[in-house]
Amino acid sequence: MINALPTAVARGPNLSKDRIKKRYAAEARYKFYGLAAISVAILFLAILLVTIVGKGYSAFVQTAIAIDVNLDKSLIDSDNKGDVETLTQADYRAVVRASLRNLFPAGVTRGQERDYFSVFSESAQYDVQKLVLNNPSLIGTTQRIWVKSAPDIDMLRKGYVGAADDGSQRLNLTQKAFYDKLVADGRVRTQFNTTFFTAADSREAEQAGVLGAIMGTFMTLAVTLILVLPIGIAAAVYLEEFAPKNRWTDLIEVNINNLAAVPSIVFGLLGVAVLLQWFGMPRSAPIAGGVVLALLVLPTIIIAGRSALKAVPPSIREAALGVGASRLQTIGHHVLPLAMPGILTGTIIGMAHALGESAPLLMIGMVAFVVDVPTSLTHASTVLPVQIFLWADAPERAFEERTSAAIMVLLVFLIMMNLVAILLRKKFERRW
Amino acid sequence: MNNFILIATVLASTALAYHYGRRRALGVVGGKPRDLHSLPGYHGAYMALWCLLPAAIFVAIWIAIEPTVVRQIIAGSLVQAQPGLTGNALDLAVNEIHSLSINAFAYSSASAEKKALVARYQELQGIGTAAMATIALVLVAAGLFYGSKSIAPRMRARQAVERVIMWTMVGCATIAILTTIGIIMSLLFEAMRFFQFVSPIDFLFGLQWSPQIAMRSDQVGSSGAFGAVPVFAGTLLITAISMAVAVPIGLMSAIYMAEYSSKKFRSWAKPLLEILAGVPTVVYGFFAALTVAPFVRDTGHAIGLNVASESALAAGLVMGIMIIPFVSSLSDDVINAVPQSLRDGAYAMGATKSETIRQVIIPAAFPGIVGSIMLAVSRAIGETMIVVMAAGMAANLTANPFAAVTTVTVQIVTLLIGDQEFDSPKTLAAFALGLVLFVVTLILNIIALTVVRRYREQYD
Amino acid sequence: MAEINVTLPPRESTPAAASKIKLSARNVGVFYGAANALRDVNMDFEENQVISLIGPSGCGKSTFLRCINRMNDTIPGCRVVGSINMDGTNIYSADIDPVELRARVGMVFQKPNPFPKSIYDNIAYGPRIHGMVSTKTEMDEVVEWALRSAGLWEEVKDRLLQPGTGLSGGQQQRLCIARAIAVHPEVILMDEPCSALDPIATAKVEELIDELRQTFTIIIVTHSMQQAARVSQRTAFFHMGNLVEEGPTDVIFTKPKDQRTGAYITGRIG
Q1: Are residues A311 and A380 in the same domain?
Q2: Which residue has the higher pLDDT, C62 or A106?
Q3: I want to staple B234 with a disulfide (CB 3.0 to 4.6 A). Which of B60, B146, B244, B405 is the partner?
Q4: 3-state DSSP: chain C helix, strand, coil percent, rounded to 5?
Q5: Which of A404-413, B71-80, C1-10 has the lowest mean pLDDT?
Q6: pTM given for the model
Q7: Domain count, chain A
Q8: Average pLDDT, rounded, for chain C
């Protein structure tokens, strides 16, 4: 029996306008904090992307200068042999220099020539060489060809740097004046930077490209995929469908989950100690990099594979067992095909992760400076993210631009892979 | 090339064995598969396995052993020629023969005795390869013979084939374990060698870190230059800064998305946040080094602070951005796992949404949130590229976020990039640091995963 | 597909005249870990009859059904004791392959579970893995025969290549029955085959069960007393892991010996 209400109860809840208003204000503030947090995160993403694109888009074009090359027979093939070796070995540097001198203002002394020559890329001689080798009959004629400018001129044209005589800029006023004259003569244009997509790394920014890194990436990821797909699927199937529940499988399970969270650099150390030292795999090679990345993404793929298998309803298994299929037939004929889209989606996401990974590859020496496009799994090569790391370290302004452009290429690959994964998921999504 | 022919031959025989097995199985029952215990395909696969497996296993073992044997023989001849040769010097000499055998240019300028040894080396290799190929082919033939003899209507070919597949799958599942063992063994082994130069006490508690000094021959590792405390402190500083960014932003984002946002908002905000997690870390590193660090430095200068151009703040800030999605997506899951009934209970008493979140949902989800933050910490400690590109190399023992500090991962990369000499403490120090990194992250992960799992089970 | 007469290997024994014991269970018990789900079941099944297993939920009737084609083998921690003889051979003896056994003892499940493949492939799967056919024509014949036997042919003959999951619930269940028939088993187990179906579909399936009795021995677990009464010749009542009583259906339903049976049938327990 309650005779009298406690005073607090008798007073009832405090529903005064003020208090309610305060509570709602707190509510609104809290909601605002949440929205602000998301906005900040997305703002960071936007800044990141805008910075990269803003810095990198200009690397896809390049300044070119028209020069009239006199393919002087006495310099190229004075003995009139005409064979490929002579034409290959000829001193095209001299040919180019002789032609460039014609462009210089009158009265340039030998000492001043250096400034003028350095307006042009050293690659001009290779362009001329290619021209001659493709068509030896041109020897003796004068040809107008477009050669790449030096990166400093490219930067000047793109407005990133200026020119000064006090040493604060890489270009001096003489070079600037010469460049202005070339522009006035209509000898300067901006062209698509094909070199960026057809060359490997180079010390000279205007001759550097990402093809070498892309090929290295492809070979490395090919090794990874070939290893990780069968092993990952087999392990996932065993653990999800066959493994008895005991301490051993518990251990494997805990181990896989933990392995997925081990820092990637530790896999690099594993690669150095086991793959390079014990197994004597070649340093810097896609085969070693591929194996390291395979070990790195294997746990992710096993986990994805298991959840895809788990999503296949048990009634399918019972149906197959009921008509007398063996357990392996049940898995092979019914469960695995149904889980395959999920497994593949997980694999693509894992491969995208591997594509962006660089730390373990630094460890096993894929930071090599490689000027050739790699052609085999044991050749020294680098991969796109490591190429980005290498270029980011280079002091020249022209490399900064190319680093951003290489990042854009990398991001395009990542976006494509993720799109494929999303489409795959959408197409085969199945509700049971 | 010879190996290629061998592999092609074995594979071709395997394919043939498959077809032969099928046809023979059908043959023994007069073309009526119903009378076979197993489908003809299984008989084919059974034959193919007998053809392939013994040879493949043999070749794998042979390839693993052969180089050692050949090296032993060459080492024997070397010792005969130069009785004093032992240990490392002997190893080096054998290595030289090996590199001469594959480098025609170096070979042309080698001495006559060496050329003879190279010839012997190549001869041994040739014998080895020929022997391997012969034995492998004999095994293929024997396997074929045995396989075809055992084909009979009641033969349980399916069971046999399935058993092989089963063991293959067990092997694949074990690879994950082997990886862990490989990591632990290699880190322990190399770290032990490091601790022969530097005592573990000095390493773990020393205050001076300058591994480059130890490269000079007159100054051995025990000079105290391998005290890792400044490195650990730098790691903690950068991790703390990144957590100060990631935890509030990530957690509030998760709360907003789980409790406030409309389905539509969530459907585009969540993927956007996940993009942050998908951006390669090298991109963040570039962003940190070229955009954020100069910005932080200039802002600092403008307000009169002395900020290093490789400040811990810049690296930590960018790392924090990278980690936001980890915190947010894990917390989001955790918050969503809180049963609706708890929310309903709070709303029914007249609590506002934010009161419900703060007083009911977060306390209920607390263990899970702690677990997800621990996972994020573990990721921050192990993150490499951002700090390699944006943090410093010099080990300063400081808590000042505007100073340059270095981290464990930076040191591992710096110590291992370039020439690796596996007997210098400089290189080996990387493995000791790696061991510490592995142990710390492993402990964090195990605790976090256990906490999160317990939490899930609680509401399942 | 032309009108065809399908001839599968005829049964070795032609029954009907003298009823023959197809299956006999002796002292069958099932343990899930330490829990004893079924105790000491002794029961005989005659050929070409429909036998109902009835009883309240959790009484062990489904567990017992799954013993007969060793589906319990697929559940970790499940142990079966005792023996079940089929044509005189213990199906639990070591040299019996559960896969072969399941080809002889087919099963239809509670919820229709067609494979997410075409109707044709659903039927063809069993014959294919058991190596029953060697040509496409033979397979076509088997598929048509199985679908006709399940009374589904007229409804699906024009869309054999469409997914089986697109059929209605009742059609799906008849497809599953056709799939079980296609391997021409000797016994068909049905685990509450109509529990997910509407009354009209149920009636069709019940009709089908009665027809199939000519060729197969059918053991059916059901929750519906009426269904047991309608389709089965014999009925067994299970309660709390025990076989309480077994006998001709009309006897069980009218003059049960055990009072628990009577209580269940009249709705007092269960």
Answers
A1: yes
A2: C62
A3: B405
A4: 40, 25, 35
A5: C1-10
A6: 0.87
A7: 2
A8: 87
**Mean pLDDT confidence for B434-457:** 90
- What are the DSSP E strand ranges found in chain C? 21-32, 35-46, 50-54, 78-86, 89-90, 105-108, 187-191, 217-221, 234-239, 242-248
Question: CB contacts < 8 Å between B and C, how many?
Answer: 16
Amino acid at B367: P
The verdict on residue A11 lying in a domain is no
Picking from A144, A162, A193, the residue at the C-terminal end of a domain is A193
The pLDDT of residue C3: 43
Task: Please give the residue range of the domain that contains residue C188.
Answer: 21-265
Q: Select from B167, B161, B179, B209 the least CA-distant residue to B46.
A: B161
Residue A46 in any domain: the answer is: no
Structurally, chain C folds into a number of domains equal to 1
Tell me the longest C-alpha to C-alpha distance in chain A.
Answer: 127
Decide if C270 is inside a domain.
Answer: no
* The domain boundary residue, chosen from A164, A193, A222: A193
Chain C contacts of A244, Cβ < 8 Å?
Answer: 76
- Residue C174 covered by a domain: yes
Residue C12 lies in a domain: no
Q: Using one digit for the tens of pLDDT, what is the confidence trace for A14-39?
A: 788 888 898 899 999 999 999 999 99
Residues C203, C204, C207, CA angle at the centre, nearest 5°?
85
Answer yes or no: do A264 and A364 share one domain. Answer: yes
Under the banding of pLDDT at 50, 70 and 90, the label for residue C4 is very low
| Beta pairing class for C187-191 and C105-108 | parallel
Nearest CA in chain B to A243: B170
pLDDT digits (tens, 9 = 90+) for B175-208: 988 999 999 999 999 899 889 888 888 888 888 8
Q: A255 and A112, same structural domain? A: no
Which residues, numbered 121 to 140 in chain C, qualify as contacts with chain B under a Cβ-Cβ cut-off of 8 Å?
A: 129-132, 134
The alpha-carbon gap from B22 to the nearest alpha carbon of chain C, in Å, equals 13
Nearest chain C alpha carbon to B156: C97
In this structure, the answer to whether residues A174 and A298 fall within a common structural domain is no
Question: Is the same domain home to A84 and A232?
Answer: no
Q: Which residue ranges form the domains of chain B, and what is each CATH number? A: 3-155 (no CATH), 225-458 (1.10.3720.10)
Nearest-by-CA chain B residue for A234: B169
pLDDT tens sequence across A361-402:
998 888 878 888 888 888 888 999 999 999 998 888 889 999
- Taking CB atoms and an 8 Å limit, are C132 and B34 in contact across chains? yes
Judged by CB atoms closer than 8 Å, whether chains meet at C134 and B31 is answered as yes
> Tokens 């023996």 appear where?
C83
Asked if B255 contacts B334 with a C-beta cutoff of 8 angstroms, the reply is no
- Same structural domain, A122 and A222: no
Report the Cα A283 to chain-centroid distance in Å.
Answer: 21
Same domain, A180 and A220: no
Q: Coil, strand or helix: which one is B87?
A: helix
Chain C residue closest in CA terms to B159: C97
Place of tokens 């060793």: C70
Residue A284 has pLDDT above 60, yes or no: yes
Q: List the single best residue of A312, A317, A323 to mutate versus C (max C Cβ within 10 A).
A: A323
Cβ-nearest to B252 among A33, A262, A299: A33
- Domain at C180, CATH number: 3.40.50.300
A239 and A379: one domain?
yes
Q: Which domain holds residue A107?
A: 61-193
Q: Is residue A337 part of a domain?
A: yes
Helix, strand, coil proportions of chain A in percent (round to 5)? 65, 5, 25
Contacts of A317 in chain C (CB under 8 A): 74
For B101, the token pair is 């055998």
A150: which DSSP letter? P
Per-residue model confidence (pLDDT) at position C270: 55
- Residue C107 in any domain: the answer is yes
Is A308 within the bounds of a domain?
yes
* A243 and chain C in contact, CB less than 8 A: no
CATH value at residue A236:
1.10.3720.10
